[in-house]
Amino acid sequence: MLAPSDQLDGISGAALQMQRELQWFKEVESIVPPIYKDAKNLDRKKPSEVFSQQHANLVKEGEKWMKEIATSSSFVAALIVTIMFAAAFTIPGGNNDKGAPIFLDDPLFMVFIISDSISLFSATTSVLMFLGILTSQYAENKFLTRLPTKLILGLSALFISIAAMMIAFCAALAILLNKSSTKVVMIPIILLACVPVTLFALLQFPLLVNIFISTYGPGIFDRNIQRWY
């Protein structure tokens, strides 16, 4: 049982193709008479057994696809965790004689602390999600919602951590370059800081949206289907 080719067009990745195949199988299973669900063919195999046999290679390809994305993304997220953890203890401007931050009363300092914390926690969440993907059992039913949901959460948290990291970077520079003679330098720096966030959005958002719609969007059949019994 294979989904129509027009349903598979535009689906990127073997894991999402496997998810679409499972969705088709579940939809068809829900509209056929119950007696056919456990019926056996000439080879004495049930529909679910035939489905598993025909999609064994796609499950392996989906596992490989998911692990490749999780491995590369977790490396980036772990790097952000390391950077932001170090930045939290390397306060812009340093501390005074009492150990308090010199720019503690500066509103930009609070922006730095909040964005640094958000970036650190989001990156940590992303790492945990991707580790969950790498250590998951790749049974075929896991491709329906569990694995795609982990990928959605991991990529979303990674995007938030990158955006927050750039905000923390701009806030730190704004604190250090607070003089009127150096404020003009902030404009090109802020524009450059938007580049990695924009690139990540352009490269990963289409995949993220595709996974979200495929997992939580409308069903395969977008119209009411009359049951066969």
TrEMBL record:
Pfam families: PGG (PF13962). Residues 63-174 form the PGG domain. InterPro entries: PGG_dom (IPR026961). Signal peptide: none annotated. Keywords: Membrane, Transmembrane, Transmembrane helix. One of its GO terms (cellular component) is membrane. The chain crosses the membrane at residues 69-89, 109-131, 151-177, 189-213. This is PGG domain-containing protein. It comes from Vitis rotundifolia (Muscadine grape).
